[in-house]
Amino acid sequence: MKRESYFLRLAAQTPTEFWINNPTRDQVGLALSHGATGCTNNPSYTQKMIDHPAECSYALEILDQTIREIEDDSEAIAEFQRRLVKPVAERFMPLYKKSGGRQGFVSIQGDPIHEDDPDVIIREALENRKLSPNICCKIPTTEAGLQAMETLIEQDVPLNATEIFGIRQAVVLFETYQRASHKSGKSPMLYMSHIAGIYDDYLQAYVARQGIEISPDVVWQAGLAVSRKLYQMMEDREYPGIFILGGARGLHHFTEMVGGKVCCTINWEGTADRLLEQDPPVVYRLFNPVPQKVIDELMEKLPDFKRGYLEDGLEVEEFEHFGPVCLFRDIFTKSWKRVLDFIGQRR
User: Fold this and answer.
1) Mind listing the pLDDT tens digit for each residue in 119-147?
2) How far apart are CA 231 and CA 177, in angstroms?
3) Within 10 Å of residue 229's Cβ, how many Cβ atoms?
4) Closest by alpha carbon to 105, among 121, 93, 118, 114?
5) 265: part of which helix (H) or strand (E)?
6) Is 294:218 a contact under the CB 8 Å cutoff?
7) Which uninterrupted H or E stretch holds 165?
8) Residue-wise over 263-289: b if at least 16 C-beta within 10 A, else e?
9) CB 104 within 8 A of CB 134
10) Cα-flanking dihedrals φ and ψ of residue 320, to 5°?
């Protein structure tokens, strides 16, 4: 009897779900065949499709048609992204319908350059929402993003609250959702994305830059320590929403979250394909405690771990300036500007 794949066993044995990130058309099919229940697309998606050897000609055909129809480059890149995402959303629609709208969401996050303007965020989200019933609008959890989310919740727009690194960001998000939901009577789907892998990248770079004496084994646990604490808080306080583990930078960012009611978002190349190849055992790991001495050392030596780990570690106005948030946004901004420059050359 042929053994089922890792992800299919995961789906059968745990409440943990597998989402695919920034997929090609082929990867959408592969992910669905292995039980993927959702998809995310971030501001790097257009650049990745242009650069991908198998998708380049397809993406350029769509881009050229878009810039023929739309004169403004900023509007053209946003529409280009929507046209790339639309067929992905269509592939997930059968799952969305079969699950009664519980699964099959495809989230889309657009222009990172103007994400400090809630009006731009709202306008873009509403345009993205027109693509398909299963579109989930991915919004940064910053002061401007929270303002936008409050309006979008009142309009019953499904949300993926992203760029969350600190516990305080998540708590303010849930408070915002509860306030807006109570006011409007609307309770749209809410996903909360904690970006553990990028957090680890940021902290590891800080350690190297500052020459801090700390074991790599300790730093390895940092992002997931915040994830574990945040997941338990969601359960204990019965916060609305579903936990997404995003920004995976290693297989452990997936396997260490197994067992929870979590959607783990991963790239196909380098993560999903490696998990299929290695075929590890399906083991509940999320509830393994992080030793207090590890937390103490991280708190003592890494100030931005402390700011992220403590519930009162950040103020709302600090969210968009928090180091790992800036790192993540800068990745997106660089990619978005690359495509804008490319559009200018292509005209």
Assistant:
1) 999 999 999 999 999 999 999 999 999 99
2) 17
3) 19
4) 93
5) strand 262-266
6) yes
7) none
8) bbbbebeebbeebeeeeeebeebbeee
9) yes
10) -75, -15
Structure tokens at 273: 């394909």
pLDDT in tens, 225-256: 999 999 999 999 999 999 999 999 999 999 99
Homologous superfamily in CATH for domain 6-346: Aldolase class I (3.20.20.70)
CB 276 within 8 A of CB 34: yes
SS3 content of the chain, % helix, strand, coil (to 5): 60, 10, 30
* 142 closest CA partner among 344, 323, 322, 274: 322
pLDDT at 155 over 80: yes
Q: Read off the tokens for 150.
A: 């409050």
Nearest Cα to 314, choosing from 73, 83, 141, 129? 141
CA distance 231 to 162: 15
Taking only the tens place, the pLDDT of each residue in 284-301 is: 999 999 999 999 999 999
Instruction: Read off the tokens for 251.
Output: 């297989």
Query: What are the C-alpha distances in Å from 6 to residues 36, 111, 167, 258?
Result: 12, 35, 31, 12
Q: For residue 327, give both structure tokens.
A: 């790192």
